[in-house]
Specification:
Number of helices: 3
CATH superfamily of the largest domain: Nucleic acid-binding proteins
Number of strands: 5
Shape: rod-shaped
Helix content: 25-40%
Radius of gyration: 25 Å
Structural class: alpha+beta
Order of helices and strands: HHEEEEEH
CATH class of the largest domain: Mainly Beta
Strand order of the largest sheet: 1-2-3-5-4
Distance between the termini: 54 Å
Oligomer: single chain
Largest sheet: 5 strands, mixed, barrel
CATH architecture of the largest domain: Beta Barrel
């Protein structure tokens, strides 16, 4: 991308300097590629159902407690302990065996409970 800018700039520079401008553009482009690869290597890949936690979803089939929600254009089976009607907005708070645990949007997550307690409560609810 940087190289394109330097090529355009070379059109506006007189003869003895336009090769220097192009050479600087090539060097800048190489630097940009090296920097981009290093940055991409440091960032972990984000994939899987864990990326849905914290996102909002729209209820398609009423969750009382089991139902279905649409999130990012996909339909997911969901469980909502408090219940949610069709077209309600819910927040994904967890998952168990590819079933999303959701709660009505606007409600805050329990505070002070550890992840182990949350996992144990979720496994009891899905058993």
């Amino acid at each position: 991308m940087v190289l394109i800018l330097f090529v355009i700039a070379a059109f506006f520079v007189p003869w003895p300097w336009w090769p220097v401008v192009l050479l600087c553009g090539v060097i800048a482009e190489i630097g940009e590629v090296v920097w981009g690869r290093r940055l991409a290597r440091r960032m972990p890949a984000k994939a899987g159902v864990e990326t849905l936690i914290g996102r909002r979803a729209r209820v398609v089939e009423p969750c009382r407690p089991d139902g279905r929600v649409r999130i990012r254009g996909e339909l997911w089976n969901a469980v909502c302990a408090d219940g949610a009607d069709a077209d309600d907005t819910v927040t994904v708070v967890g998952e168990h065996e590819l079933k999303l645990e959701v709660e009505p949007a606007g409600r805050s997550r329990r505070r002070g409970s550890s992840q182990r307690e949350d996992a144990a409560a979720a496994s009891d609810r899905f058993s």
